[in-house]
Sequence to fold (283 residues):
Amino acid sequence: MESIPASLVKSLNDLGLSNNEAKVYAALVLYDNAEAKDLVEYLSISKPSVYEALDNLAEIGLAVKRISKPARYSAVSPQMAIDLLMGNHKKAADLALVALEKLETEKVQTEKEEALWTIYGDKSIEYKIRDLFGKAKSHIRCMIGERYLPFIENIQIKDISLLLIVISDQPGLERKLRKQFPGKNANIYVISSEKFAVPPPFAPPEFEEIQKLMRVENTLELITDDEELLMIPPFFSSTVSVLNTRNKGAVLQMKLFSQFNWKRLIDGEDFPVPPHLHKKKRT
Fold:
């Protein structure tokens, strides 16, 4: 007979069984019913380890001990076993969530906050974006490029203030996003990449060189509740890393800059030009 596949043992590990429990349960399914010595011989596991696994499996309902001499054991059906394990996981997850959310409300703030964190990799960035959208309590301000659009698909948020600017040339995208984020508290705008690339007034001569390095699709500015910032400048390369901070000064500074820039993109209003630059323009 073939040995128990390692992939099956790993799957059962992920569902909460130890290596020995996973192997013993799988062997019971294979044998229909068996004595402990059959399992010891087949699995090459010590007798005490097999008995311990059988006791544990019987306790959680995955194995049935038959009254006989010597005792024989059989497995409950695979479907019932998976249902039991999934139910245990769900119960444990619900209890853990309640406890963790309680701890979150009692969060201890350190006296010295790190000014800046760096998050690497698309998967980690996706988790962080979804986390910030999900835990926002009062408002979300977000400008996002096409690269990260899949990361906000199917996200559901509380009935809070949302300002969402998406840099994209996809037709019908604004309608789709308004359907995803309905309500009077949601303000959604889709800005073309061409409009996004228009330089602000009094841009320095170096701006043309900066534009050559731009990756508009990488743009990300996300601020939740004026408490946390996630940012990727639009000129990062394909190996993207995100700047993340809860530093109050950094968050408010970025918010202030964004207010001017986003107003320019949404309403077409330019930055106010400082008087000394007006003079230079006339000369």
Summary: The domain at 117-282 is CATH 3.30.870.10 (Endonuclease; Chain A). The chain has two domains: 6-80, 117-282.
